[in-house]
Design brief:
single chain; 212 residues; alpha+beta; two-stranded antiparallel sheet; 22% strand
Length: 212
């Protein structure tokens, strides 16, 4: 199910904060009540391989997101206790020590199921067991959501497990959306902060294409 252009699900999810406390986080309310944009990125599992590189990359870019009035939140289907253990594992040992943003612990898979981002290729009914058997790891893909100050999703994307994300692209998308919000213009292909945008009409696109 696609959520772009729709409100992000209004649901509370357990999370681990940098202090080691298990808290409750509602992404929709984080955006609306704080009047901030939210970047929510999902990753498959704690204590794996591509995942810590992404968590550290988002941490390194955290000042850039904060300058753009954007909250960063990580998420997986691991428990808060596993998040805590990973947060207390040194970077040079594959851990995420030093990460300061909240990590959702969607271990009941309520939110990830609503978002339909779980690695389940099919569900098979086993007559002997009288049970449905899921095929797949039932963990989240590398899904990313950008949510605006009204709780509306303005970007979503999903990477397969082996493909790490480019953090700079999300900064570019936030800049582009902020430009749209402020100026009412639209942002063409490869737009970056400081480059020309255009009016969303025939004259606007003609003028832009005549110089590019």
């Amino acid at each position: 199910m696609a959520f772009t252009g729709k409100k992000f699900p209004n649901i509370d999810v357990a999370a681990m904060n940098e202090m080691g406390d298990t808290i409750s986080v509602n992404i929709f309310k984080e955006a609306v009540e704080n009047k901030k944009k939210v970047l929510l990125f999902w990753y498959p599992k704690d204590f794996t391989f591509v995942c810590p590189t992404e968590l550290h990359a988002f941490q390194e870019a955290l000042p850039e997101f904060e300058k753009r009035n954007t909250i960063v939140v990580g998420a997986s289907c691991d428990t808060a206790e596993v998040h805590f253990a990973w947060l207390n594992t040194a970077k040079d040992n594959g851990g995420i020590e030093g990460v300061t943003y909240n990590l959702l612990a969607d271990s009941n898979r309520n939110l990830s199921s609503i978002l339909d981002i779980l690695d389940v290729s099919e569900v098979i009914y086993d007559e002997e067991l009288d049970a449905e058997i899921k095929v797949g790891d039932n963990v989240s893909y590398r899904a990313t959501y950008l949510i605006d100050e009204e709780g509306t999703v303005f970007h979503e994307g999903i990477n397969h497990m082996p493909l790490g994300r480019n953090v700079k692209e999300f900064i570019r998308l936030i800049d582009a959306y902020a430009h749209v919000q402020q100026h009412g213009e639209v942002c063409p292909a490869n737009w970056e902060e400081g480059k020309q945008a255009m009016n969303a009409n025939r004259d606007g696109v003609a003028s832009y294409l005549s110089t590019h």
